[in-house]
């Protein structure tokens, strides 16, 4: 049923600007009792491939945890790349957002329409499985202070309140393409992090966290990227993001803006045409190459997901559910605290890639996000998973064509130590890797 709002013409991206979205969402959060089961580091280090019962899941859902040895994980790739990258760019660019109530045209896969709120749905729980993944936090010193730029914060506030009051334009034009800095430049004042908070982060980073088979072809590796790796990724993305083909404010063909900043690596994805290309049409820039270390993380995440799937079902080979993939595209999104992304399918990769179910591999860094997904473009039927900093999500095989999106960014949830080390702006960095 059409509730009066349409969808964008972008193939990959879907709906934007659902009015009063916060109030009308009906997705059920996982009850507290079903939060991921953590494992002791001692277990993790001694047991190699042991499995035990966990309590994650819903209702009748039984989960099993499998522990992997710390040495088998990707570790500290590119530690040297943690140097601070200096830039004189202000980096905010024009961040005008479309009016929340704006209607958008629809076409192709994005033509389904929003349904009015219905009763909450529970997620399918069969086949879920946990996979213990120890994490690493060597060499990152914990300090109780986080610094941010007050100047930049003020600009972000201004933009946000303009957005809320709906008095900003929504047209995409050349001025929207100014480079965007994902990190704050000046350290002007300090926010104290409580010792409790820092200890919580430290515990989280040093304990194993589960990997979960959410549904066939969809795997979530919780807390998979160490803080060191996250720092490296942020620094690298910042460096690339300030150069040719770096972060900018994208817009659709109809002029509406996406609620995020974007940078493409490997190949350019153009939201105006929903196509991949070698250069970025609005400025002719060539996308930076995907850093080698990023691809190593992706390969490792695919392998670990395949092992997880194989362990969870004797009948299935891991590769059948999550096929191997060599990424030649990475789309980096930066969401400020008001950022979001409507339900959409990733469908602009080659027919061969999609047909084979080659997975999309997604890294989350910074503030947590409410990630929604489902078989239909229907928010009321969608399920939700909070993606936290360091989480890696894969959807391939039978889940390659799911609708998915980001409902909201949860403020002040980024690990303090990450913010302190990188000066990452409030918000979330997301990288999705694909093979064309
Ligand atoms: O930010 C996310 O988690 C999802 C991003 C996404 O779906 C995309 O870039 O196509
Ligand atoms: Fe996507």
UniProtKB/TrEMBL annotation:
**Which prosthetic group or cofactor does it need?**
Fe(2+)
User: From start to end residue, where is composition biased (Basic and acidic residues)?
Assistant: 152-166
Domain Fe2OG dioxygenase residue range list: 326-436
Q: Please verify whether the record's keywords include Zinc.
A: no
* Reaction(s) catalysed (UniProt annotation): an N(6)-methyl-2'-deoxyadenosine in DNA + 2-oxoglutarate + O2 = a 2'-deoxyadenosine in DNA + formaldehyde + succinate + CO2
Can you quote the record's cofactor note?
Answer: Binds 1 Fe(2+) ion per subunit.
Q: Where is this region: Disordered?
A: 1-102, 149-170
The record's subcellular location field reads: Cytoplasm; Nucleus
Report the EC number(s), separated by commas if there are several: 1.14.11.51
User: Where does this protein come from, organism-wise?
Assistant: Brassica oleracea var. oleracea
Q: Which GO terms describe its biological process?
A: DNA repair; oxidative RNA demethylation
Question: What InterPro entries does the database record attribute to this sequence?
Answer: Alkb, AlkB-like, AlkB-like_sf, Oxoglu/Fe-dep_dioxygenase_dom
Binding positions for Fe cation per the UniProt entry: 344, 346, 404
Q: Which named protein is this?
A: DNA N(6)-methyladenine demethylase
**Predominant cellular place of this UniProt entry's protein:** cytoplasm
| Domain of life the protein comes from | Eukaryota
């Amino acid at each position: 049923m059409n509730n009066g709002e349409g969808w964008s013409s972008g193939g990959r991206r879907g709906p934007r600007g659902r009015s009063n979205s916060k109030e009308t969402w009906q997705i059920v959060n996982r009850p507290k009792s079903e939060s991921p089961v953590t494992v002791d580091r001692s277990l993790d280090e001694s047991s190699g491939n042991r499995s035990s019962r966990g309590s994650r899941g819903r209702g009748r859902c039984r989960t099993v945890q499998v522990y992997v040895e710390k040495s088998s994980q990707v570790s500290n790739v590119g530690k040297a790349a943690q140097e601070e990258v200096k830039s004189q760019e202000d980096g905010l660019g024009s961040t005008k957002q479309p009016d929340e109530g704006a209607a958008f045209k629809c076409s192709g896969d994005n033509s389904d329409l929003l349904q009015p709120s219905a009763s909450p749905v529970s997620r399918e729980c069969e086949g879920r499985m946990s996979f213990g993944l120890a994490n690493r936090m060597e060499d990152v010193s914990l300090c109780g202070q986080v610094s941010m730029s007050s100047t930049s914060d003020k600009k972000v506030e201004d933009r946000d309140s303009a957005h809320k009051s709906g008095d900003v334009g929504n047209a995409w034009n050349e001025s929207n393409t100014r480079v965007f800095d994902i990190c704050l430049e000046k350290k002007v004042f300090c926010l104290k992090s409580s010792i409790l908070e820092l200890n919580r982060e430290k515990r989280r980073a040093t304990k194993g966290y589960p990997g979960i088979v959410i549904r066939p072809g969809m795997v979530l590796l919780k807390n998979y990227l160490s803080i060191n790796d996250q720092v490296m990724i942020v620094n690298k993305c910042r460096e690339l993001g300030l150069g040719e083909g770096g972060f900018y404010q994208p817009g659709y063909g109809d002029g509406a803006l996406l609620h995020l900043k974007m940078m493409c690596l490997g190949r350019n994805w153009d939201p105006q045409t929903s196509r991949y290309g070698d250069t970025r049409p609005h400025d002719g820039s060539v996308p930076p190459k995907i850093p080698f270390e990023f691809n190593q993380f992706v390969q490792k995440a695919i392998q670990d997901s395949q092992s997880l799937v194989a362990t969870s079902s004797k009948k299935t080979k891991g590769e059948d559910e999550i096929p191997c993939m060599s990424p030649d595209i990475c789309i980096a999104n930066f969401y400020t605290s008001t950022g979001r992304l409507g339900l959409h399918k990733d469908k602009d990769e080659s027919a061969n890639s999609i047909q084979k179910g080659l997975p999309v591999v997604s890294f989350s860094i910074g503030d947590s996000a409410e990630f929604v997904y489902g078989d239909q473009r229907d928010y009321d039927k969608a399920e939700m998973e909070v993606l936290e900093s360091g989480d890696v999500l894969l959807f391939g095989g039978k889940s390659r064509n799911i609708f998915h999106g980001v409902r909201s960014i949860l403020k002040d949830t980024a690990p303090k130590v990450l913010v302190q080390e990188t000066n990452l702006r409030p918000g979330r960095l997301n990288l999705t890797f694909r093979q064309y």
